[in-house]
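Newbie here. two chains, one complex. Structure please?
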Amino acid sequence: MNPDLVIRNARVLTCDPSRFGLGMVDRGAIAIRAGVIEWVGPDADRPGATRVVDAGGRLVTPGLVDCHTHAIFAGDRANEFAMRAAGKTYLEIAAAGGGIGATLGPTRAATDETLVALLLARLDLALAAGTTTMEIKSGYDLTVAGELRLLRCIAAAGRRPAPRIVPTLLAHLVPPERKADRSAYIIELRDQLIPQVATDKLAASVDIYCDEGAFTLAETRSILGAAKIAGLPVRGHVGQFTDLGAAELLADLAALSADHLEQITDRGIEQLASAGVVAVMLPGACVQLRLPVPPVEKLRAAGVLMAIASDLNPGSSYCEQLPLQMWLATTHYGMTVEEAWLGVTRHAAKALGLPTGGTLQADVQADLIVWACDDPATVPYRYGAASSLIESVYVGGVRCGMAVS
Amino acid sequence: MNPDLVIRNARVLTCDPSRFGLGMVDRGAIAIRAGVIEWVGPDADRPGATRVVDAGGRLVTPGLVDCHTHAIFAGDRANEFAMRAAGKTYLEIAAAGGGIGATLGPTRAATDETLVALLLARLDLALAAGTTTMEIKSGYDLTVAGELRLLRCIAAAGRRPAPRIVPTLLAHLVPPERKADRSAYIIELRDQLIPQVATDKLAASVDIYCDEGAFTLAETRSILGAAKIAGLPVRGHVGQFTDLGAAELLADLAALSADHLEQITDRGIEQLASAGVVAVMLPGACVQLRLPVPPVEKLRAAGVLMAIASDLNPGSSYCEQLPLQMWLATTHYGMTVEEAWLGVTRHAAKALGLPTGGTLQADVQADLIVWACDDPATVPYRYGAASSLIESVYVGGVRCGMAVS
């Protein structure tokens, strides 16, 4: 039986780990059946198909995987952005009502309908910039019932075919109203929220923000321990401002990923490498907060796999555009173009526990992008105009309508 | 007689220097007749009009002014971008055929039609991101006849109503084939090219690249002197890599602007301030080349006016998006949101010798943007998605059709 669709005459960037480097098949073709890739190979060997699309020699890549976002929230913090640009300190901004607290109020007050509509608008922008799989964290309610509600809203948004959604429960921080009974709050997370999320299958993993002002290393160990007991993989926001030793802990726990890493010791790097934990680079937030650049050369030398994500959130990176993050990664972070591509495809999928995600190879979902260019370097190089570089996006072998200007 | 058009119920960011700060008129309106602003004031006082547009309380700003681009060229240098990301040095890239030389060949080989078509595609992207006036430099041919041709192609593109074009003759560097008779080349520039450009009114100013590997300070003095004699204002690329003292020279020559300024002395800053030379910040190129940040605090303290531009060019910043440059300016450069706005409106217009440009006030061309938001900080804050933040763009009082996805 013929495949449903063959995309031919393409420069296929497979990101297939069994091929060299980015796994480019220069004059290539892809055969798709029932939403799944059946075959990738030389154009000359392509099978017949019900429908054939000629890519005109253009670049075809896996759909992009954004493996770290906080895309569900209400309100914005443009005012806080202006204060920071005017040189106000973190404490001054907090005193003026800024910080995560400024997102908690509007998010808690918003209806489910509003939250889903806001999220869908962001998903449209992400899809128009090539994101076909997006991780979305809870974390802007911080009550047990409210975090469950956020995860249910994420699930509702995920009923649309594209982009695909990977939900994460995030232990973001202790909310202001629970500062007096911090340990009781943590027990609620451990004994109520995490088991409920696991039972209801509302998240694919549990994430935690371990840093000065968020959770301590001991609390992180306790909360992620509960996640492991509940059968959920874990990951963490680590060393964005201060290294509390969480990289080592995440390595011990065989976490999916350690994210941020502006601050990390050589020992932490080694342990991430041995444990196969993906380092998620978030260059937009790093630039916006004027933080030091993570030790990319050391991570590379140690063999740590690096992913790149948008960190889409209202505080430090209000951006849906992965290609722009690739530009920041290849310029400000000093990553190579190959690392940038793997960072938003195969390595990002690994950070989400999707072992064959972010690749174009047989038996993988047919999520792919036909670009308007032929060189992979063009995508980060022509920064800021991703949508104009995209010819079409397919999710599960179906071409997506682009609703976005 | 009534105005043709009134835009009412708007938060009007006038950038009018006679008003405080950004000159916000909170519940404002704008009256337009024959493409020119007739009146700006409180919505309650608005005149009647043939046509009234209700902005729904949204932000209305001057159209953006991109005061530094190299938007006319053929070919691209994605390959060079990849080499730099892989850690190749400037010399290694040059040895592999990179650098400006890699743009000279394709540009010289391209037909007028191709050059204009490539330029128009870039103008479409810029307009979709809010640019209503764009400066465009020659500089990728470097022969007398070829530079004249580039300026004629720019003029051809400028026959479209939007964006408005301001052409600049750029003495970019001595082309490889003239290295042996460098002084003869400079005499050609002085005695043939510049007078011809002035006679044919092909450029509004003369720019020069004064840096290690480009023109020396003495050559710069000689070439800009010829421009002054020909009646053309001058400006310069200054201190991107090395401070050769060109800021002081530009101050002496009462230049329109001094651009880049990663390297500048305190004395240079003082002189720019006293001479009223605009400092043009190019943060995209700075990030891409991993250069140090210019001394923004010192420029601010000295009272130097700062503009922000895209530096759109194939080597160090292939980007048409001014709002993204505003994000880089407010984060990486530490500029305020107010400085970012003035930098892409009033101060950018001043850098182009357009004294009332980049403002919304009576007797100024009605070039303006109706944004999809109400807070000026939102424009840099929601970085990377400028087109989705724009409701409509007017040039000369006429709403532009947006051809770009």
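Moderator note: Chain A touches chain B through 50 residues (CB under 8 Å). The two ends of chain A are 39 Å apart (CA to CA). Thread marked as resolved.
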